[in-house]
Amino acid sequence: MATDKTQLQTVEKELNNLKEQIEDHNYRYYVLDAPVISDTEYDQLMKRLLDMEAQYPELATADSPSQKVGGQPLSQFSKVDHLVPMYSLSNAFNENDLREFDRRVKKDLGTDQVSYVCELKIDGLAISLYYEQGRLIRGATRGDGTTGEDITENLKRIGSIPLKLRQPVTLEVRGEAFLSKKEFARINQEREEQGEMLFANPRNAAAGSLRQLDPKVVEKRALDVFMYGLGHTDQQSLAAAHLPIEKQADIFSVFQELGLKTNKEVKVIANIEEVIDIVQYWQEHRQQLPYEIDGLVVKVNSFPQQQQLGFTAKSPRYAIALKFPAEQGISVIEDVIFSV
Ligand code: NAD
């Protein structure tokens, strides 16, 4: 019908406009490390896009930003093809979204027997480290999830990244590189004194620092890491070292044995209501942490269940990120200029 067609054209126009806006913000955030809107505002745009694509599936396209991870790798660095893709996370914004996630997981698994691991969502930059027989071979950014940037020389300058593990295992580990609130303030104060442009937030400062061509920049900035995930893994080498990783929670104990730094605030939870209590706790106490978090990540603990749930084009179905509302709005962001 004519009205339906006109209506669809209007929706398509709005959808294209929304996609263009999001692509532009992705470029500023992932490539330039210089966002011009807050993460909360960005998340609202993305939610609108997802809602519209769900309502009008005939207008959804494979190249939509709702289907893509991160941004393009910078051409100054060599490219690294990840042995296992680095995914993004789907988002929850409130308790009901978390309960809905729990319902979906149990329905897809066909069982109520599910335990979760609840981790802090560190507000930094995703990195991947590849160790061969215990030696650090390569370090990369996430990039578009399939291909990242080779930033090995920069990552080697981070004190908490071991060049050699305590056991000769072969594995790809994932985690977050970040700057503490104190170090972020120190860097910005130094920059202010030198009349240089200020960083908008610790995440952009960490990303900007790690994507510098001169590794000495990283040496001067006390970047840190928390490792929390696995990519490609040679299970035989882990078994030989008597360090099997059979569920999500094992990652933390095994990584510590290997000399990899992990976050201490990790909890194994038997039901989603307990996760909601933890969310409330961290919403009230996040200020007390020495580093920024932008939410919590909830992951199904069992690896076989994770496998059964699988992935969408962009994110695993066995995990969700509960995003906190932004602490600072765009008015604050606009006062600062973003550059390295
Ligand atoms: P995401 O930040 O929503 O979640 C995925 C990322 O979480 C992972 O890649 C990893 O880096 C991080 N993470 C931290 N702790 C983790 C843990 N314990 N376990 C697993 N992952 C952990 O997804 P994204 O694709 O990195 O970025 C999308 C988000 O970035 C948006 O939701 C928005 O907040 C922000 N963004 C903002 C702008 C802007 O203009 N302000 C633009 C693009 C993206």
Description:
By secondary structure, the chain is an alpha+beta fold. The chain has 2 domains: 2-67, Helix Hairpins, CATH 1.10.287; 79-334, DNA ligase/mRNA capping enzyme (D-amino Acid Aminotransferase, Chain A, domain 1, 2-Layer Sandwich), CATH 3.30.470.30. It is built from 12 helices and 11 strands. Strands 2-11-10-3-9 form a 5-stranded mixed sheet. Strands 5-4-7-8 form a 4-stranded antiparallel sheet. A hairpin with a 2-residue loop joins strand 4 (125-132) and strand 5 (135-141). The longest helix has 30 residues, at 2-31. The chain starts with a helix and ends in a 6-residue tail after the last helix. The model is unreliable at 329-340 (pLDDT under 50). Bound molecules: nicotinamide-adenine-dinucleotide. Nicotinamide-adenine-dinucleotide binds next to helix 1, helix 2 and strand 3. The site of nicotinamide-adenine-dinucleotide (NAD) has 24 residues, from helix 1, helix 2 and strand 3.
Structural class: alpha+beta
Q: Which CATH class of the largest domain is shown? A: Alpha Beta
Which fold name fills CATH's third level, the topology of the largest domain? D-amino Acid Aminotransferase, Chain A, domain 1
Number of helices: 12
CATH architecture of the largest domain: 2-Layer Sandwich
What proportion of the residues is helical, as a percent range? 40-55%
